[in-house]
Amino acid sequence: MTNYTAEILSTIKEVCPPGTPEIDDFNKPLMDCGLDSLDLSALFLSLEERFSVKIRDDDFDKLNTVSSIDAFLKQNAS
Amino acid sequence: MMKITRIAGYIPDRRLDNYARQNDFGITAEFIDTKLGANAVARKSDEQETSDLCVSAYNALTEEAGQQYDDVDCLIVCTQNPDAQGIPHTSAIVHGKLVLPENCASFDISLGCSGYVYGLSIISSFMSANGLRRGLLFTADPYSKIVDMNDKNTCLLFGDGATVTLIETSTSDTGVWRPDHFQFFTRGRDGDALCIENEHLHMNGRAVFSFSATETPPLITRSLEAAGLTQQEVDLFLLHQGSKYIVDTIRARLDIPADKVPFGMTTYGNTVSSSIPMLLKDQLDNPEFSKLLLCGFGVGLSAASCILTRQL
Fold this sequence. Notes:
The complex is a heterodimer of chains A (about 80) and B (about 300). Chain A is mainly alpha-helical and about 80 residues long.
């Protein structure tokens, strides 16, 4: 697990309501892991603020797994 | 000095049950309860125009006050869904339906969810500048005119309603609600996040959420600083009822106790510029409150906040 993955998982825990299942399959779509569209909006906002990155609407649909977000942050976070 | 004397609201009886549509949109009852915060949305009848909603709000005002207000000299309607595409302006139509005096100034203002706070500033300033004594500030923005009933981002969220706020001159500073310490914010470059596309309302939920969550807290802080108040000194924070999720998010970001941020759209939905006065009308007579913060945000993208103060 990379540092980014750990940060993504902890951010998911922060923004999602209690009872949201643990994510152990990093390639599984987040919407299939119990997150809804508003959770994703809050997650991406929090990641933008935490890592000083801009997640464009074009990227929003592609960043649908922990792995894809991890790859995005590796490429874009300073 | 201008004071807020009384507020009344009108919500149409007709409701669309959001639970009945949850399978259509693949959402759960929990999502409706904890994220949207509206188990139903209010819908006006097809025959009701925006001005009719205003008249119904006015009728509620006179019924609750036990008196008519014939000597109104200022009438403002805040709407972006006017009668007949805006010509004549809806305020003039309301003026006609209420049979108000011909020396009454009447005009519309085009604003969405920030409109009530803007409207308070506009009507107070306009009345003061022109020596007017009694004004009516209406909010009525029936989004049912523009919502696509197959768009889950909007059709489960927006409800119809109207409010009217009675503003009068006051010779006393004591015991009256006075709006002040207004702060404004506009980000026009992102206005397409909430706009009309192909004759229907389009909302980029993520963009509106990000705007509201990031820009509203500092705006609220600016109003507090302008008033020389701490959060703890404010009795209630009346936020635009965009959704339960956004109200909860703003509250959490400002670390305000839940009991200071009322929520009130559960049975009728997001009524745009009417959402704040719908909350406020129930608080004006509470003797325990002397400082309230109002904050509206949305279409524009636009936001506005102010402090209502009552010297006890």
